[in-house]
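idk why but the lab printer keeps eating my pages so im just putting this in chat instead. protein + adenosine monophosphate:
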Amino acid sequence: MEAGRELRAEALRLAEDLRRYQYEYYVLGRPSVSDLEYDRLFDRLSALESRYPELKTADSPTQRVGSDLEAGFEETAHTVPVLSLDKAYSVAEVVAWMRRLPPQTVFSAEQKIDGVSIVLYYENGVLARAVTRGNGFVGNDVSENVRTVRSVPLRIPYEGKLAVRGEIYLPKKDFELLNKTLEVPFANPRNLTAGVIRRKQSREAAVVGLRLFVYEGFFEPPLPDQQAVFEKLREYGFPLNPHTVFLTADEERLRSQIEKETRGRPLLPYEIDGLVFKVASTAEREALGYTEHHPKWAIAYKFESPTGETTVEGIDVQVGRTGRMTPVARVAPVEIGGSMISNVTLHNQDYIDLLELSVGDRVQVSKRGDVIPAVERVIEKNEGAPVYKMPERCPECGAEAENAGAHRFCPNGDCPAQKRGRLKFFIGRDQMNIENLGGETMDFLIGKGFVSFPPDIYRFDYTKLMKYDGFGEKKVESIVRGVEKSKSQPFAKVLVSLGIPELGPKAVSLLIDSGLTSIDLWLEAAEKGDESVFLSVKGVGPSIAASVIGALNRPEMRGMIEDLRRCGLSFECGKRSSGTDSRFEGTSWCITGSFGHFKPREKAQEEIEKRGGRVVAAVSSKTDYLLAGEGGGGKRGKAEALGVTIIDEQRFLKMIKGEE
Ligand code: AMP
Ligand code: ZN
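predcted complex ->
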């Protein structure tokens, strides 16, 4: 089918607009439309072109994705790969990337300079061309302007051809001074730099104090690693960023480096928008390889979270296991940072008031990898609509809600929403971790009335499920296995699973360490109303103490504990249901490094805890064992100094198999 006149006209119009926006964005550095709007138009044109190929022209904006090419500057092809970087928006994502590397891998941690990417081509020691990144294959020759940048070496003692990648930037101070004199100021130093790099008169560029940092050199034959490249580049007079460090794949070291750079960021004389981590060895880089867009041997950690725009279609109130009522915005699905978002928490009424949010508003939503998405601000009001007010009653059971602190609660302990929340919490990964029994099955069990509080989970005859669709023999067996297995969870996990408000794993472990090693001791203290038993423990505050005492004195809680005890759960340290092994009883462990068998290393922690051992975060004189994997850092030194027994993975495997 051929495209009709209307579509043809639309494609032309889209191409024209997109070309103008690209020019504004890449050349002027002053976009006049939002990224979202740009993407929408771009996607529309791409869709039209793929449906009706005859609409595609050689100079269509879709053919120059993300290009900064500009007519006034000669186009030159890159002779080295000028790729983009894979992005991470949370420390967890960087850690995950690092864990995939062999443990002894050395990599660099560099600042991601927020300037303009440049490739410098030298021929027989002379700067022959300076080329923008362009679309990665072809860039603009901006040599005239780049030659005016004083830190760019014009001559180097090198025979043959050498390409060097770097970033041209403008220090914050210079930006502020210069921007003040402009009629239309630039939004940031990067945009101003991009503008200067493309001045028609290099005289104008020369007066602006642009600078350079280089971070890659394409030597032929290649040098063995990045350290060698940096050494050579430094020797030739290239400016290298002094903040670069080289690390091994050690998680703690990585975290502390990110923390340090994040803290130091505001004090830097120039802008950075993240950090870049790169495998150092040339051979390892080649082995890891590339995707179409980025090398697999590097990752950029970005400080700012990605955002998206969407519309609030409604606001629901969810009631959690503690009765807390949380308003949640239902939004038109939008992709942010690689995942589809359709629900966004609004925390409480205060937060809604702060945003002045109404249903129908257009909002900006942000998402960092490891954090739930948040509404950042209202972009466009749904004029006339009132600011949303949370209901006065629990939407689930109709009980009149109570306010406590910033939150509103359903006070009815029998509220179906709360019961459901408690059951789901109980079976959750960080609590009893009942394998093969997920939230959906739980909803089914609750709906049918088979399960209404935790002991039911251990008393229900799961074979009864076999008469329902979707519950085959295999599935039922696996649920039974998961339920049975969960009985060997240690006392600490059982305690947390009870869902006593404010009593998390950290407080539990502190309290158990202080001597509260069986539920009877807890119940006794609660019965006496003896807060001091809890308060004498450092790290346990009055609100935890009050919550524990209140909860453990409630008859329903006492009943549930007795029931669960009868079901075989362990309510005492070291005592667990029959058949489990407790060879690590009473020992304290610390873990460092990474392991071949235990990935993630929480798996090793599980093995220790299953056998009655305790895992602590730091090595101290009270630690019995340091389980040390590959690449462990400071903990090993500390353990050695304190005489703590260090156990490697092989020995640990023998220990848990009972061979030692
Ligand atoms: P992006 O443009 O967001 O894909 O990120 C890749 C860009 O980050 C590169 O093209 C460089 O211009 C820039 N960059 C800044 N500092 C560095 C660095 N230390 N290593 C690699 N790229 C960097
Ligand atoms: Zn309720």
